Amino acid sequence: MTKIRLIIFALTSIVLTNCKSEKREFPLDKRYWDLNDYNKVVLELNYGYKVDEKLPTFDDPTTRIIVEKLTDQQNFNVILDDNELGIKHKNNIAEKFFNKWKDMNNIYDALDRKDQYLYDKEMLAVWHFGLELQLKYFKLGNDQIKENADDPNSPIVKNNINSNVRTLIKNYLIYLDEINNEKAFTEQGKIELANGIDKYFSALIEVYPQADYSKMKNKAELMMKKSKSDNVRSSLNRLIELINFKKETEKNN
Fold first, then answer.
1. What residue numbers bound the domain in which 49 lies?
2. Do residues 173 and 127 make contact, with C-beta atoms less than 8 angstroms apart?
3. At the top level of its lineage, which domain of life is listed (predicted)?
4. DSSP β-bridge partners for residue 117
5. At residue 117, what are phi and psi to the nearest 5 degrees?
6. Of 213, 139, 229, 116, which Cα lies nearest the Cα of 172?
7. Exposure string for 182-208, b = 16+ CB within 10 A, e = fewer
8. Is the pLDDT of residue 18 over 60?
9. What is the DSSP string of 97-163?
10. Cα(107)–Cα(110) distance, integer angstroms
11. pTM: predicted TM-score of the whole model, two decimal places
12. CA-CA-CA-CA torsion for 144, 147, 151, 155, nearest 10 degrees?
């Protein structure tokens, strides 16, 4: 009877171990993750870890690749930049990635008892994934509006496109709200926060140079007064200068 119990216990342990192992399996051998992969991985990262269990991080050599794969922008760019694919198909894929990105925002937003981000670099990598994605997603949506319109230059079409651009700018402003939480970031996190402003906000303005960035400029000016980080303040200053430059350039054209 004792042997049987030992065998049962051993088998149970093996099953539990295997289940735990399967629970932590990620498609790391794939070059690009598709939407099915994201559905599984994001679900696992959001709900498959205990509260006190450490999530995959850039600083952990054993789990770094998981974060790198999760935030690899090539996962959507390989589709959205493919000129052989149709706009409707790419727009549909972009929308699904966008919805999945919204779920990704909950993965790394935890604070410790001192109100410090536990995973600031990972959280910002997710943010940057979303900023790049939105730039592609909204452009595809606007391109599809033009393609489906009888007259792409009609006032209605232009109003719809301008409305989408305003929404995109508002979404980008949410990133600047993180400067209000500057104390929650590590020094490296502040550098990454600033890098995001330099890279993605300048890209936004390059794609839509004629858009109204007055609210963004005002937000940047307010955040400059509030920020204590030299890196963040420098990035905000460059953003303001770029907005002013584009405004003058468009005025003279």
1. 2-252
2. no
3. Bacteria
4. 111
5. -65, 135
6. 213
7. bebbeeebbbbbbebbbebbbebbeeb
8. no
9. HHHHHHHHTTTS--B-TTS-BSSHHHHHHHHHHHHHHHHHHHHHHHHHHHHH-S-TTSHHHHHHHHH
10. 8
11. 0.89
12. 10
Spatial neighbors of 175 by CB under 8 A, at least 6 apart, are 127, 131, 196, 197, 200
Distance (Å, whole) CA 229 – CA 197: 13
Q: What CA–CA distance (Å, rounded) separates 144 from 93?
A: 13
Residue type, 45: L
In 3D space, the residue among 25, 61, 62, 57 whose CA is nearest the CA of residue 40 turns out to be 25
| Region of residue 115 (phi > 0: left; psi between -120 and 50: alpha; otherwise: beta) | left
Average confidence score pLDDT of the chain:
91
Give the pair of three-digit tokens for residue 180. 């209000």
- State how far the alpha carbon of 27 is from the alpha carbons of 39, 132, 248, 250, in Å: 12, 23, 49, 47
Give CA separation, 128 vs 175, 201, 235, in Å.
9, 11, 15
- Tokens encoding 214: 């007055």
The one-character DSSP state at 198 is I
pLDDT band at 152 (very low <50, low <70, confident <90, very high): very high
Neighbours of 85 (CB within 10 A): 12
DSSP string over 78-97: HHHT-TTS-HHHHHHHHHHH
Question: pLDDT confidence of 23, banded at 50, 70, 90?
Answer: low
Q: What is the pLDDT of residues 222-236, one digit of tens each?
A: 999 999 999 999 999
Contacts of 28 (CB under 8 A, 6+ apart): 65, 66, 69
